[in-house]
């Protein structure tokens, strides 16, 4: 059952309500249940995900996008076959104390939560019981920016936890591919959509955001995760 409300408070004292509208309540109440203990033959055919179209309304998306203009984004370099290359997107990691993150050879110190990103974290906890303590924000400037096929399976991520992905801005394809059967799905994610990846998604499937050169507008993605606190000391 959905409980409580909260608001985004902007600098000029205007507020964007995060109270659920009748339409949003209807959407959330009809989400299909996805079990984490899916049988292997079923998991190969269908990825363990929940997709909620229009989870955030236009005002909520605008509030996040306004805040995101001031995020301290960077484009770090990673080593591939002995050569260093900047990643094809910009990113920033926010999280609780002790929730530093190491992936692709990059050690990322958790920055304090921005106001609205934290309120979105609280909304996900209330609506779905997600115990996220960090979020990776990626900005794709246009369709040339991308994310290669990978799994979010770093050891500091709590085993068996869910990962929630929020899309803002441009519509982009999200490709899911099974590691063994090679079964592939393509999902177009629109602004305001929520996709939750349930266990064993990260064990059995790869996901990517491929290049789409016809896309000219930016896309923002918030990926909320649950990390083992103080994993890196």
Account of the 3D structure:
By secondary structure, this protein is of the alpha+beta class. The chain has five helices and 16 strands. The chain has helices spanning 22-29, 40-45, 58-68, 115-128, 201-204; strands spanning 7-9, 15-17, 49-52, 77-80, 83-86, 90-95, 101-103, 106-108, 134-140, 147-150, 163-169, 172-178, 184-189, 194-197, 205-209, 219-225. The strands form five sheets. Strands 3-14-11-16-9-6 form a six-stranded antiparallel β-sheet, with helices on one face. A four-stranded antiparallel β-sheet has the order 10-15-12-13. It is globular, with a radius of gyration of 17 Å. The N and C termini lie far apart (37 Å). Mean pLDDT is 86; it is low at 1-13 and 25-43.
What labels describe this entry?
233 residues, alpha+beta, four-stranded antiparallel beta sheet, 5 helices, 33% strand, globular, disordered N terminus
Indicate the radius of gyration in whole angstroms: 17 Å
Q: What is the SS-derived class? A: alpha+beta
Beta strand count: 16
> H/E order of the elements?
EEHHEHEEEEEHEEEEEEHEE
The geometry reads as globular
Helical region count? Answer: 5
Uncertain segments: 1-13, 25-43
Helix content: 10-25%
User: Main sheet?
Assistant: 6 strands, antiparallel
Distance between the termini: 37 Å
Portion of residues in beta strands equals 25-35%
Mean pLDDT: 86
| Spatial order of the strands forming the largest sheet | 3-14-11-16-9-6
Brief rundown of the structure:
By secondary structure, this protein is α+β, with helices and mostly antiparallel strands. The protein has helices at residues 22-29, 40-45, 58-68, 115-128, 201-204; strands at 7-9, 15-17, 49-52, 77-80, 83-86, 90-95, 101-103, 106-108, 134-140, 147-150, 163-169, 172-178, 184-189, 194-197, 205-209, 219-225. The strands form 5 sheets. The protein has a 6-stranded antiparallel β-sheet, with helices on one face. A 4-stranded antiparallel β-sheet has the order 10-15-12-13. Strands 1-2 form a two-stranded antiparallel sheet.
